[in-house]
Amino acid sequence: MDALTTGAMDETWIRQDVSSTARARRAAAELARRVGMSAERVGQIELAVTEAAVNLTTHADDGALLLRLIDTGPAVAVELLAIDHGPGIADLDHARRTGVSTAGTPGLGLGVVERMADSFDVHSVLGRGTVLVARFRDREKSATPETPLPEPTMTGLTRPLSGEQVCGDAWSAKSVVPKEQTGDPVPVVVMLCDGLGHGPLAARASGQAVAVLHRGTAEDPKDIINEFHHALAGTRGGAVAVARIDWHRRRIDFCGIGNVSAFVVADDARSSLLSSPGIVGHHLPRLRGHEAALPPGASVVFHSDGLTERWSPAAMPGLFAASSTLIAAHLLREAGVRRDDASVLVVKDPAAPGARS
């Protein structure tokens, strides 16, 4: 099996408060310098992040920024994700024009974030909130700086419990068949582990599950969970969901233990993939696998119990036609709770309109 990188490095969550703008600007500059970006590009990223942070503190009731490094294949990019609970944006086209800024900030509106970014997207639900994602690469070192960065069909987000620096949840994925051996979408095995409790000991359990996934050879989700169970025996253990997703055959094979939720979402409706009670590493019941169809354009969603299940695709119109990153971030905004670690993983049909691997 070929391993797929999860893509995210050096994640920094910044909660909305009076000092968030300065901290976000410093964190973004540090990430950009870490991967060798020029001083000019660092300054552009600082300007874009400042605009996003000021918009957050000025207009939102609550929100957060995520800054992280993303491996886009040919280059590493700085990714900015802004999530807010607020009034939403009634006219996104107007708000995206450079020079439009209701906050009167130096960046002159969302337009400057889009202009500085190599990829940019925003989705807003009136009365609920807005999610913005922008990625920045070093344009001087790019062979094709005019080409937009590809949007991944798979995105995972993890957010630690408020007050913690380490998240006890983790996700990962690996391919089953090398892509060069087939012209069809490559089947993937994906997993999400919610380490019991929170903090470093929970992170140790979920990190062990990620390591086992990548060094193991099993493809059946039940066999993979059995491998996890033996490997996590010396840890706190955790709740785990594992799926083998085959877009060519339009089938998902799933097995889950504990409070990890899993859904297939299509046509503004969702169907649940059922998990069994238990704790991987400590108490493993008889494993039952489940098979479900994947309709064209479907998305697969996993999340830990750091998100409630009280979300509906129909309440977020147009969201599941958006990128996997925007879907994951909106679900975190819509359903995430602050009293626990939170994680969400979204896998989109690579054949859906606008999807790019």
TrEMBL record:
Residues 151-349 form the PPM-type phosphatase domain. Keywords: ATP-binding, Nucleotide-binding. One of its GO terms (molecular function) is ATP binding. The keyword Protease does not apply. Transmembrane segments: none annotated. InterPro entries: HATPase_C_sf, HATPase_dom, PPM-type-like_dom_sf, PPM-type_phosphatase-like_dom, Ptase_RsbX. This is ATP-binding protein. It comes from Catenulispora pinistramenti. The lineage of its organism: Bacteria, Bacillati, Actinomycetota, Actinomycetes, Catenulisporales.
